[in-house]
Amino acid sequence: MRALVVEADWLPREGYQVSGKEESTRETFHGNQVWKNPRMSIQDIERPIIETDEVLIKVKACGICGSDIHFHETDNEGYILFPGHSTFPLIIGHEYSGVIEEVGSEVKIFKVGDKITSEGMWWCGECNYCRAGFPNHCRNLKELGFSENGAFAEYTKVKAKYCWEINDLSQVYKDDKELFKAGALIEPFAVAYNGIFVRGGGFRPGSHIVVYGAGTIGLVAIQLCKASGAASIICFEKIKERRELAKKCGANFVFDPTKVDPVEKVKEITKGKGSDFQIEAAGAPSVIIPLMENSLAVNGKIIILGIVSGKSEIETWKYQTNRNQLFGSQGSSGHNIWPYVIRMIANGKINPTIIISAFYNLENIIEGFLKAETKKVGKVLIII
How far is CA 50 from CA 94, 101, 206, 233, 247, in A? Predict the structure, then answer.
């Protein structure tokens, strides 16, 4: 089969202490500290052979995620930008949909022909964190497209326990091509859903919401908040094309933060009360958290969805005196997140396809990556 394979050199940075497990497995949770000189190529490789508890999926569509881009982009020293879980060589890609082509002998809940997507975070179900109900923080975590071969390929294999049927999307998307486009974008909606409603505990209908960043996660967060009764949604985004997408997704007010004072704008729109719920989806918390802290309403919440390494300062007294809270969020597994997102799409409450800006096929996927790296687009989708 044809697949996009990423290779890189294992060259730990000076001063980074490599653990014995990292050294032996070449698998790390600190990718930008060890992987250098990434290289992408389309290759012919063997089709996956499934185990008894797995399904083989014919991939139909797969989105280019910001994390995928950070496997391709490098810093000044040639190290990948992605700070997290990674191993190479690897087929990347984790936002996908497809059709089951083969089922293992132990699989009872799916059949050949089912339209499908799957979780990307492969929790073990046995460690203390999984047993406590925190699968996104599994201590034996494997990840599709990060540590295990992913979906920028004609086929991928996944354990059935991570899969979700998307046949119901046909209630909205009568054409299968459109259904698979929507199905490929369930994952980012699930990531945002986890941050907003599970980790952050949601917001009261009628709340003022602020979203920083209108990349994929910011755009899906806007849709989820709109569908859930936000009174107003204010979005700050530097790039013109993404500001237009934010409006399409339901933002009531959209501003370039380099042209206005975000704190003053939030106070102006909320008549001095501040925003009830603020979402960091830009991956720049050291800059954005102070803006959020100075424009939060009493009892307001900050949700961190953007992924970035490094430290950020917070003013603790503001959380004390205003009864405010800050939540970090990772992943999308557990808590019935995926079926709830699928249900919202199937009932027309949210529309994943409106954030898609460009399509490419597997053979010209690297061109698609270069397009996505301009950041002047919404989602770039690979049709396979």
Answer: 18, 11, 48, 45, 43
